[in-house]
Structure formats: structure tokens, C-alpha cells
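Bug report (template v2)

What were you trying to do?
Predict the complex of my protein with zinc ion.

What happened?
Run completed; filing so the output is reviewed.

Input:
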Amino acid sequence: MPATFPGGGSGMSEECDLKADVRCRRCHRALTNPASRAKGYGPICIAKEAKERMDAQELAEAST
Ligand SMILES: [Zn+2]
């Protein structure tokens, strides 16, 4: 059994990245969209996060 691997494959990590099961941090659904995977949230949750962030900002501005 050959135990030698081709050393230093820079493309390996990308392949692993695609194979890794990346899930939304919010609803834990599997993410298939590269952009969603990069953010760690699905499109629905990104929209929710953005809205909540805006709401929080408005509250912070109103309280000052
Ligand atoms: Zn989600």
C-alpha cells in the first residue's frame, strides 16, 4: 500500500472545503452556496441578521 501523498497540494484545501459540511450558524441547514458558506449563514438568515443589525442600530441611535 503506497503511503506517499503528492506533497504540497494547494488545491487540496479547496477540495476539502467543498466537501466539508458547512452549516448555517443560525438554522443549521447545510449550505451549498459558496457565498453563503463564506459568510456562515444561509441567504434567509443573512437577510434576518442584516435586518436585526439594522434594528439594533436604530435602537442604539434612539437611546442616545
Ligand atoms: Zn440559516
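What did the reviewer find?
Helices lie at 10-19, 34-39, 43-63. The CA atoms of residues 35 and 42 lie 9 Å apart.
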